[in-house]
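Let's practice the habit of predicting before peeking. Look at the sequence and jot down your guess about where helices and strands might fall. Then scroll down.
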Amino acid sequence: MFLLNKDNRGYLAPSEYDYFAKQAQLEIFEGYFADYSRAVSGQNSRKKALSYGDSVMHIQNKIDTFSKNGTLTYTDVGPTSVGGVDDFFNMPEDFYKLINVTYGGKVVQEVAKYRFEMLLDSNITAPTVSFPIYKREAQKIFARPLSIFYTGTTPQGAETPLKMNYIRKPIDPHWGYNTIGGDPVYNLDSSTDFEIPSSDETELVIKICNYAGLNIREKDVVAFTQQLENQDFQKENI
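Done guessing? Here is the structure:
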């Protein structure tokens, strides 16, 4: 907001800044995965350095800060009280990418949707408590055998539920403020900071300014920020 301020009042409302900040952070966060893929490809072709120049490890460390483990929420569809064929587990609200699903400390095997029913219909390949399987449909997980939904008559979710390791979304930043003399004044206590590392702050500022420049129709701001982004891209892909 300071960079775009010409009369000490600013062009952006706090709500607009929050939206642009959220989008900029999410864009950088999602870019980590494309960057990681390119870095792995470059390392496999021996075009990338190791040790302190190991870009694969550098990007992986960024992504790992968003790794999390949690319990899947059980949804009983019925008519069976627990363990019905239509019952499923919900992904956490902050879910972004799945690492794995575990049950009783063991990794549950994910199978393609078309193979799921095939495996269930076979006496040889049918899943067991020792070798459970699951399929994903949007934000839902369907696990088999049905017996892993419960232990005896106690719902599984009450004691030892399915768990998952995943990459969560970054928390939305928020520019908190108090209104003094009709103007918004920054309030640290009610604010939420960015979660991406400090090494990406320059890129973050560029992206926020780009969004803001488009919003206030400042062609110079848009052109300048796009020029900086192009320079950064060229440096990263030399």
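How did you do? The first strand starts at residue 67 and ends at 71.
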